Amino acid sequence: MNYLRISLQLTALVFLFTACTIEPKKKVPLEYQAGQKEFHRVCAGCHGADALGGWGKAPKLIQKKFIKENFSNGKIASTILKGSSSGAMPSQKNRVSDQTIKEIIKYIRYSQAQSGISN
Ligand code: HEC
């Protein structure tokens, strides 16, 4: 009886967890897939699928304001590690490694180029 209840609760939890995961809508070449996966694990909950913006106040990252010339890789890395200067974005440092940050930035640059706002 108890086992049944526990397994039902676990099923519900797993369902909730997967239902909340934001999935990418775009397919990217193999070399960007690691970054795409990490972006959707760490950032997409706020920045939306494919970095195109979410429901909240986090901006889409696929816009001119955030292309390399206007917002360097170093600035993205420090935003991830320290949060945004206004404090509206909390630090993500406990959820990423240096390698993850590199992959995420590579993926964001690729997506910006693909969208035609940078190259
Ligand atoms: C908890 C929600 C949340 C998560 C998770 C999150 N962000 Fe943000 N991010 C925000 C918000 C809100 C802003 C707007 C902050 C502001 O205007 O100060 C923002 C702003 C930014 C900016 C622009 C900063 C600036 O100074 O204008 C960048 C770049 C960014 N996020 C990248 C990322 C990346 C990459 C990840 C994943 C590693 C990520 N964010 C995860 C909420 C989030």
Explain what the structure shows.
This protein is mostly helical and 119 residues long. The protein is built from five helices and no strands. The longest helix has 19 residues, at 2-20. The mean pLDDT is 91. It binds heme C (HEC).
Alpha-beta content class? mainly alpha
DSSP strand content: under 5%
Tell me the helix content.
Answer: 40-55%
Total strand segments = 0
What is the correct CATH architecture? Orthogonal Bundle
Hetero ligands: heme C
Counted by DSSP, the helix tally is: 5
Radius of gyration (CA) equals 17 Å
Question: Low-confidence stretches at least 5 residues in length (pLDDT < 50)?
Answer: none
Cα(first) to Cα(last) distance is 60 Å
What are the secondary-structure elements, in order, as H or E?
A: HHHHH
Outline: elongated
Q: For this structure, what is the CATH class? A: Mainly Alpha
Name given to the CATH homologous superfamily: Cytochrome c-like domain
Outline the biggest β-sheet: none
Average pLDDT rating: 91
CATH topology annotation: Cytochrome Bc1 Complex, Chain D, domain 2
Number of domains: 1
